[in-house]
Every structure is written in structure tokens, then in C-alpha cells.
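User: Is it possible to get a 3D structure for a protein together with its bound compound? The compound here is iron/sulfur cluster. I've pasted both below.
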Amino acid sequence: MIDVVLAAPRGFCAGVRRAIDAVRDALAVHGAPIFVRRAIVHNLEVVRDLEADGAIFVEELDEVPPGGVVIFSAHGIAPAIAREARARGLVAYDAVCPLVSKVHREVERHQRDGRSIVMIGHAGHPEIAGTIGHVRAGTAFVVNSAAELADLPIPADAPAAYAIQTTFAVDEAESIVAALRARFANLIGPSSSDICYATTNRQTAVRALAAQVDAVIVAGESFSSNAARLAEVAAAACGSVQLIANADQIDWGKLSGASSIGITAAASTPECAVQAIVSALGRRYRLRVSEYEAMRETTVFKRLAIAS
Ligand code: SF4
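Assistant: Yes, that's possible. Here is the predicted structure of the complex:
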């Protein structure tokens, strides 16, 4: 008998639900095809489901025909992208998560106040590209470790500010902020962390769960920032952690000898992926399935208005 313990909360957050609903609502109001710039959320199963319903995913706006309807992803965009959509005569909806928009407003305020901005996050991630696109080129610097602060071209006595990618690892962010405080005398940051409630809650839950089980499975895509962070947090407390996008990818060798398995899912992973993993485990072992609830989530965002 193997104990399977499901982390709670896990899976879809309010921002991901809102973005997926926006595509479905646009399909209902405008009809297919609806173009989506970049992956609406970082999950291939979600993308394939929406494609089956008539969504077409594109990398750039020049792939959308004139007059086409386009939706921007939950990760947010630089204002230049919205301007390009207007210039091309597209009908555009921005499904950016409200918690990412909040960070956009923060960095804009820091720039107005004449501060250099340190963006704690992963360079190249769409959220970071969108956020630093809200300030003048060359005024925001991306770092993802305290070691990278040494290369910052900002004098120690200059007015500085920091912002954090919403899906960054909570513990790592704390250590980078501590290093920033040690370096800059005039530093400000968000009143509460930019790391969103969903990231914080899922990391808190998996940290506690990983300490209680022999192996952890994180359901999510390897290119999803919040999935990768969940796997890192779990690995700090458990010696056998695997990040898999679906049940076909289970590494059975990593489960050998385990009498308890914890499962969590990234904020962009649908619950059906978790249930498919449990079913696959059930075909091989006798299971006792329970849930470890670290906290209850009630956050819901208002649906994006889609006009006819
Ligand atoms: S992970 Fe956080 S910031 Fe990203 S969409 Fe979900 S709630 Fe919004």
C-alpha cells in the first residue's frame, strides 16, 4: 500500500483561469479563429485544448491577419506590443494577470521617481520581458541570484528599487533582497512581495508536504517557471523529486521503494493531469489517497470583458 498525498492548494490559480476563460469567451463572442500571442499559460495540454476549439497560437503579431482578434497571455506584455496591435488594426484583449499588472505599475512608478530598477527574475521569461518593457530601455536590470548583483551597473548611493517576478522562489527572493539592502543605502521595494499568492501558497504547501513523503511528483511543464520553482522547493526537503508534464513521463525508478508519494501541480497545470498521474500510480500500486491542505484559497478575478 502506498500513501499518495495531494498538496492543496495546487494547480490552476485565479490568473490562469481568467486567461483561459478569456480565450473561450472570445471564441464564443467572435467565433473562430481567435489568435493568441504566445502560450496563454505555460501548459501544452491547455494550449492543445484551446487549439481544438479554434484558437491559433502565434509568436508575433505579424502572423495575425488584419482585423483579426488576438489575446495576450497571462504573463503580460510591453506597451509596445499593444501599440503594434492597434497599428495593425487588430481587435486585441489583454489577459494579463492583475497581479502582473500590479508589478507593471510599480516599475513605472519607480522610473517616474528617478530610481534604477533591479528586476528579480529569470531573463527571457515572457513576464520579465513584458515588465521591463514598461520602462525605458537600460533602466531596469534583471538578476536571478545574489551573485549577479556584483555586475549591476548601479552606483551604491544611487536611488534604487526592486521588483520581483510573480512566480519566483520565495526563499531565493528573500536572500537576493537581503543582498540588495546590504548594497544600496536608498532602496525601496513592494510593500508586500510581488511574488503572488498562488506561487507563495503552492511553494508553502509543497515544502511542508515534501518533508513528510518519500518522493514528490510535480505536475507541470519544464518550461513553466512556477512548476520549476515547485520542483526546486520540494528538492530541498525530499531526495526524490520529478517534474513531469503528464503521466506518461513518470520515472518509475525514482518511486522505487517509496511508501509515500506527494503530488502537487503548477499554477498552469489542469487538475486532469494530476488525476491522470494518480490513475497511472493506481494501475501499478495499491493506493491510499489523501490531501494535505496547507491553506485554503478563495481568490477569484473578475472575467475579462469581451465585447461583441
Ligand atoms: S501564478 Fe500568480 S501572477 Fe501568475 S497568473 Fe497565477 S495568480 Fe497571476
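The first strand starts at residue 2 and ends at 8. The domain at 2-12+196-293 is CATH 3.40.1010.20 (Cobalt-precorrin-4 Transmethylase; domain 1).
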